[in-house]
Design goal:
By secondary structure, this protein is of the alpha+beta class. The protein is built from seven helices and 15 strands. Bound molecules: 4'-deoxy-4'-aminopyridoxal-5'-phosphate (PMP). Acts on leucine, isoleucine and valine.
């Protein structure tokens, strides 16, 4: 089938592979009313799975889509689905909601016509020693007034994709995206941190970027381990002069930056410690 590494739960049944879920009159395929979340199963653990299940419900609500699954039920279903894979596989967990019934205007004819699916697939995480290069993107994050930034909604991602493409075309792995005021927001699918003189700094959530679950977890872990962590407004120039830069996100957890523009950086001790603390927390 080409999708033998995938299991999808929809309408009460598990399907092996990638079943068609939307039609040409589905509201989401037409007008973009879909939300999703991303979480991980690896080494027998699913860190913060309850928070990811809660977030997809909150994202649905932010778009006026009625979330039909209880978070505990969704987490349980995830556990059931992950058991279909080999225990050494690293699984990406993608719950999704979308509005089904189309209407004549922009809103779904029946906002209660929610559909849900849970898609699980094999997606190896980056190696422990992986690191990335980053560059400043010419593109910006939208504000709350221009896009539903409080939701993890599919409609936000074409902007992230063009930022990523533009960076890739210039030979970088990822892009630093700023908000409309010019302050650093995040990478294209991960949050950003830097360390300077032993202290950790990261942009404060200001409604323009995702306050990642991994971000919040890493802040708590580093703080408990005795590091000072400052959440504040940050300019790109501060990152250019950082001792260390690293990103956080569910996909690869903690990833050090090895180059910013034309400046090489050493993957440093704080990023390594953050990763180690994350693994200890996940496996506790
Ligand atoms: N920002 C964006 C735009 C993302 O897509 C992600 C991945 N969900 C993140 C940040 C990191 O968030 P989390 O730690 O919750 O995965």
């Amino acid at each position: 089938s080409g999708w033998s590494d995938t299991w999808t739960w929809i309408d009460g049944t598990w399907h092996e592979g990638n079943p068609p879920i939307m039609g040409p009159r589905t509201h989401a395929s037409w007008l973009g009313s879909s939300v999703f979340d991303g979480a991980r199963f690896f080494e027998g653990v699913m860190p913060d799975i309850d928070l990811h299940c809660k977030r997809v419900n909150d994202s649905a609500q932010a778009l006026g889509i009625n979330p039909t699954m209880r978070t505990g039920e969704m987490a349980e279903l995830t556990r059931e689905g992950c058991a279909k894979f080999k225990s050494d596989q690293q699984i990406y967990i993608k719950p999704m909601y979308w509005a089904e019934n189309d209407g004549v205007g922009v809103i779904a004819a029946d906002p209660q016509s929610t559909r849900f699916c849970l898609c699980l697939f094999d997606a190896p995480m980056a190696a422990k020693d992986a690191s990335v290069s980053i560059t400043l993107s010419p593109f910006r994050r939208p504000t709350m007034e221009t896009m539903p930034v409080n939701a993890k909604a599919g409609c936000l991602y074409p902007n992230n994709a063009r930022a990523m493409l533009e960076a890739r075309n210039r030979g970088f792995d990822n892009a630093v995206v700023r908000d409309m005021l010019g302050n650093v927001a995040e990478l294209t699918s991960a949050n950003i941190f830097m360390a300077k003189e032993g202290k950790v700094h990261t942009p404060a959530p200001n409604g323009t970027f995702l306050n990642g679950i991994t971000r919040q977890r890493v802040i708590r872990l580093l703080s408990s381990a005795g590091y000072e962590v400052f959440e504040r407004t940050m300019g790109y120039d501060e990152f250019l002069e950082a001792d260390e830069i690293f990103s956080t996100g569910n996909y690869n957890k903690v990833t050090p930056v090895k180059r910013i523009e034309d400046r090489d950086l050493q993957p440093g001790p704080i990023a390594a410690r953050a990763r180690e603390l994350y693994w200890e927390f996940s496996h506790a």
